[in-house]
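User: quick one, fold this
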Amino acid sequence: MNSADKIIVALDFDSEEEVIKLLDQLPQASFVKVGMELFYSTRSGLISRLKDRGLKVFLDLKIHDIPNTAYGAVSVLSRLECDMINVHCAGGLEMMQRAREALQGDTKLIGVTQLTSTSRQVLNQQLRIEGSVEECVLHYAHLAKQAGLHGVVCSPREVRLLKAELGKEFLAVTPGVRPRGDGLQDQKRVMAPKDAVLAGSDYLVIGRPITKSNDPARAFADILKEIEGGYYEGDHHLI
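Assistant:
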């Protein structure tokens, strides 16, 4: 896999027109993410049109419901022939197992551990989950692997530990990636692109640094240059 194929561009728009405008400026992109806002406003037809453009699609709807409902949702969504869909690990082992049973075709199923906007304070005080974010992420990842999922969504800061315990083949899909000099926005647990790749991230989900740029193609190219050009901040995470 080359570096460009590791970047999943998050299409955080609410209309197909905005998506097409971006993609026409971004010929380097090979993998895109369709989240709730876009999917709910455009429905399933957009997935087919993205696939017709030769793009891989990660459908990010974060299914979280009772096991039978999760089974039904994955059964329907996997018919769209997306390359990746996801569920919330917080739904529990049985829910994830039922979702995995419903999966069809070559679609990969991954589990959301903790959102990159979740700090330890939020985890402990608001969600009433004890321990560190890293401990929670690893626990959820173990459940996801036990359920037969292909990997998880996590912050790049948890990837080294996750890969060490669950193996290199267990996918780590990481939002919370910000090019050096970019702002945090609403994310808390972040890492620069080069650091994320060296930590073991299989895919980097990057949205606003590309999609909100005045020159998306240049922004994409700059991220590739940062990944491939030897820039590495080591343990000092840039932002």
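User: anything notable?
Assistant: The chain has eleven helices and eight strands.
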